[in-house]
């Protein structure tokens, strides 16, 4: 895999074992679908090389190796140059061999990758090196070797400390952190978190001498977080001319076609490229230059610093059926270590024919779709498909839905473009009668939600038909509806070919909602009767009445004792109901009165107080003929004492009546008579002395002799004095009395007087 032109090798070992021993740390890679930067080659890793497979879905992956972990003193020395704290280098992958160059230079291409990017920059520092030893070479490593894995233009080794996102970032490729898309999801990205760009190891050697090289990579201070070095296939070479013939267009591998093919001849030299170099190109084979292919120079010159030359030529379309012909290209180069000849063979043929086969002709119903397919063989490279209609250009098949019989034509060319083929397919579409649908005539109903069956008739088109009513009526030819109000529905009919047509039907509901109104609220007197009338309109007769609290006529007679609310629900012939309610107020004035004071006497005004509720008019009858009043608060004087029945009759604004009566006791008015003499002489006339009064509530009297002694006293006005003291008659004389009296109406008298006793 590794070796190119200009070198011969011997004594190959890997980790001290023969070079043909299988190891999980070494193997072949191909990165055609990965981002290594090198197309293919040899990989050496500190762990198993399978760890390199993408995507990068881990930031610290390792594939452990079995057996003894190899160490290498040169790798340890190299790692310590940029990170002195490194104690050891483990899991080394060490490839060694001797080689003899045929030129004066050595070169090969490589990429370094590691899981330790970027977490361990200036810390762990996994290392790798290309340690070259031999004639004319003096260095610090084993066998006076030097390290040729260097950063371009410097003497610095390539490590994670010397190439990263900060130091020499132009040589660093960020490959994600193991968790971030797209690196963590796409297998295009290898597992290692960081890579270098493609670099070249260079050295000046002496042609014909034997040299030794050790290619090594290892884990610093641990055995995890793997690192690897990728070496490009065929790049390990000395400065000998190499030749590669490649068909870059109009062919496959080393074969290309007349009229469309282009080939390249790549001449590459190694070495330090300090001098010019001339290379002879000789032609041979059955093909003829300028007749079968374009001109190729007989000599090419490498200028100083130039390492490659490209010669392009093409196959000529001569119109002759010659079969396959070949071109032999021989490159001769002379070096200080001898000459060398490299031969490349390229073939020329006529462009292969193109075969185009479309699917069979077909008949479809109406605008049904059918799949048109193309099978294309022969030709060269990619096909160009040009459809005249129906199918997008470039597609091998497509669904078409012609409205009429149509022929589709496909024209095909290939990458050469010198041959064009076509084929055609016809899709036949029969002509059908127009599709029509007729829904029954419009319908009128007189009640909401009356059930109506809608029916439809379909003609023309292509059976089978599908039906779709609006309003979620279903997918059948008939539909049942019961609309609450006038409503229309549309039926859309679609035939087998996808054609559709519609018709509409309307169900008119000739109905106005029934309404009921009870005659206005009313007020009656207690005990009277009110008649409520339910006034009904609209709807559909006959009507049913339902009164609350009871009744089924259009009127209701009520005699509530108190204010009451009455309701009626009316239902018409359509079963639609309406509701109203009305109140009946009951006026019942409440008669009540009282009279002022606590004592009432005749000929003294008495105040009567109205305490009625709801009254607006008053009639008083005081129990005395002619003694009446219409005042709310009358004053009345009774002419005589006695017991009287006082009646109050009240009415309200409606004339509602109520009455009440109370009995009032009228005491006599206050009068007092005290005789000024009496004759207790036994003649039976005027024998005692007594105070006479009316309207008296409280009474007290004392009688004194001339010396002030009390000879008689009483608190009862009915008690008389017989002119004695303790049973002994008192003599004729004038006696003084003192009395105190309180009238029923409240007046008080306290006076003195005298009485003459005569015998």
Question: Quick gist of this model?
Answer:
With 759 residues, this protein is mainly beta.
SSE layout:
Blueprint: E1 7-14, E2 17-18, E3 26-30, E4 40-45, H1 73-82, E5 89-101, E6 105-114, E7 127-133, E8 146-147, E9 172-174, E10 194-196, E11 199-204, E12 211-220, E13 227-232, E14 237-238, E15 242-249, E16 251-252, E17 255-257, E18 262-268, E19 277-284, E20 299-302, E21 308-314, E22 325-335, E23 338-349, E24 354-358, E25 362-363, E26 370-378, E27 384-387, E28 397-400, E29 406-413, E30 420-428, E31 436-439, E32 443-445, E33 452-454, E34 456-459, E35 466-469, E36 479-481, E37 487-494, E38 500-509, E39 515-518, E40 522-525, E41 530-537, E42 544-548, E43 555-558, E44 564-571, E45 577-587, E46 593-595, E47 606-610, E48 617-621, E49 628-629, E50 635-636, E51 642-651, E52 657-666, E53 671-673, E54 677-678, E55 692-694, E56 696-704, E57 710-714, E58 724-725, E59 728-729, E60 733-743, E61 748-757
Parallel strand pairs: 17-23, 25-30, 32-38, 40-45, 54-61
Antiparallel strand pairs: 1-2, 1-5, 3-4, 4-13, 5-12, 6-10, 6-11, 6-13, 6-14, 7-8, 7-12, 9-10, 15-18, 16-17, 18-21, 19-20, 19-22, 22-23, 24-26, 26-28, 27-29, 29-30, 31-34, 33-36, 35-37, 37-38, 39-41, 41-43, 42-44, 44-45, 46-47, 47-50, 48-49, 48-51, 51-52, 53-55, 56-57, 56-60, 58-59, 60-61
């Amino acid at each position: 895999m590794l070796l190119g032109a200009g070198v011969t090798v011997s004594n190959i070992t890997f980790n001290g074992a023969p070079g043909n021993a299988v190891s999980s740390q070494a193997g072949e890679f191909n990165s055609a679908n990965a981002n290594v930067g090198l197309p293919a080659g040899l990989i050496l890793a500190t762990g198993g090389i399978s760890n390199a497979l993408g995507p990068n879905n881990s930031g610290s992956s390792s594939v452990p190796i079995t057996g003894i972990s190899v160490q290498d003193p040169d790798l340890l020395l190299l790692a310590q140059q940029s990170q002195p704290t490194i104690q050891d280098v483990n899991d080394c992958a060490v490839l060694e061999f001797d080689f003899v160059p045929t030129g004066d230079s050595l070169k090969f291409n490589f990429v370094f990758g590691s899981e330790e990017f970027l977490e361990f920059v200036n810390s762990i520092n996994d290392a790798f090196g290309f340690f070259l030893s031999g004639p004319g070479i003096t260095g610090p490593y084993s066998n006076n070797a030097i390290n040729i894995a260097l950063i371009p233009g410097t003497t610095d080794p390539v490590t994670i400390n010397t190439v990263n996102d900060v130091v020499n970032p132009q040589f660093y490729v960020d490959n994600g952190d193991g968790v971030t898309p797209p690196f963590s999801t796409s297998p295009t990205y290898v597992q290692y978190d960081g890579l270098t760009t493609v670099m070249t190891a260079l050295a000046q050697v002496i042609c014909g001498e034997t040299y030794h090289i050790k290619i090594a990579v290892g884990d610093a201070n641990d055995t995890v977080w793997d690192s690897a070095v990728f070496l490009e296939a065929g790049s390990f070479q000395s400065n000998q001319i190499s030749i590669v013939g490649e068909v870059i267009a109009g062919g496959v591998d080393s074969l290309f076609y007349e009229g469309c093919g282009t080939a390249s001849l790549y001449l590459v030299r190694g070495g330090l490229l300090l001098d010019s170099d001339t290379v002879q190109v000789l032609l041979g084979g059955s093909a003829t230059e300028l007749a079968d292919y374009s001109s190729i120079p007989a000599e090419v010159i490498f200028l100083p610093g130039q390492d490659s030359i490209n010669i392009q030529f093409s196959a000529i379309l001569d119109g002759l059926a010659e079969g396959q012909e070949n071109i032999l290209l021989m490159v001769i180069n002379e070096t200080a270590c001898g000459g060398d000849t490299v031969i490349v063979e390229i073939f020329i043929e006529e462009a292969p024919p193109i075969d185009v086969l479309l699917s069979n002709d077909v008949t479809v119903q109406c605008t049904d779709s059918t799949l048109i397919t193309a099978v294309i063989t022969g030709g060269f490279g990619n096909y160009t498909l040009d459809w005249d209609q129906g199918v997008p250009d470039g597609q091998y098949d497509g669904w078409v839905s012609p409205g009429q019989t149509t022929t589709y034509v496909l024209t095909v060319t290939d990458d050469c473009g010198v041959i064009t083929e076509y084929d055609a397919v016809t899709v036949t579409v029969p002509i059908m009668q127009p599709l029509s649908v007729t829904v029954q005539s419009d319908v009128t109903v007189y009640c909401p939600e009356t059930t109506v069956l809608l029916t439809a008739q379909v003609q023309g088109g292509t059976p089978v038909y599908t039906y779709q009513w609006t309003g979620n009526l279903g997918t059948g030819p008939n539909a049942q509806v019961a609309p609450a109000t006038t409503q229309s529905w549309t039926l859309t009919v679609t035939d087998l070919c996808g054609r559709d047509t519609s018709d509409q039907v309307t169900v008119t509901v000739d109905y106005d909602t029934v309404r009921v109104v009870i005659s206005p609220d009313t007020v009656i007197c207690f005990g009277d009767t009110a008649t409520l009338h339910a006034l009904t309109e609209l709807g559909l007769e006959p009507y049913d009445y339902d009164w609350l609290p009871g009744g089924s006529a259009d009127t209701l007679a009520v005699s509530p004792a108190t204010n009451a609310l009455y309701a009626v629900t009316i239902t018409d012939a359509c079963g639609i109901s309406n509701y109203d309610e009305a109140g009946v107020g009951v006026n019942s004035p409440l008669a009540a009165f009282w009279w002022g004071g606590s004592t009432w006497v005749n000929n003294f005004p008495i105040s009567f107080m109205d305490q009625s509720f709801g009254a607006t008019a008053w009639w008083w009858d005081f129990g005395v003929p002619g003694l009446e009043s219409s005042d709310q608060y009358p004053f009345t004087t009774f002419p005589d004492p006695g017991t009287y029945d006082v009646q109050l009759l009240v009415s309200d604004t409606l004339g509602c009546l109520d009455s009440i009566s109370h009995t009032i006791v009228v005491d006599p008015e206050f009068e007092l008579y005290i005789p000024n003499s009496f004759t207790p002489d036994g003649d039976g006339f005027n024998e005692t002395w007594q105070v006479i009064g009316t309207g008296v509530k409280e009474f007290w009297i004392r009688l004194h002799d001339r010396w002030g002694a009390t000879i008689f006293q009483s608190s009862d006005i009915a008690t008389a004095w017989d002119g004695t003291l303790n049973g002994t008659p008192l003599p004729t004389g004038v006696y003084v009395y003192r009395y105190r009296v309180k009238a029923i109406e409240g007046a008080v008298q306290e006076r003195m007087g005298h009485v003459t006793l005569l015998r």
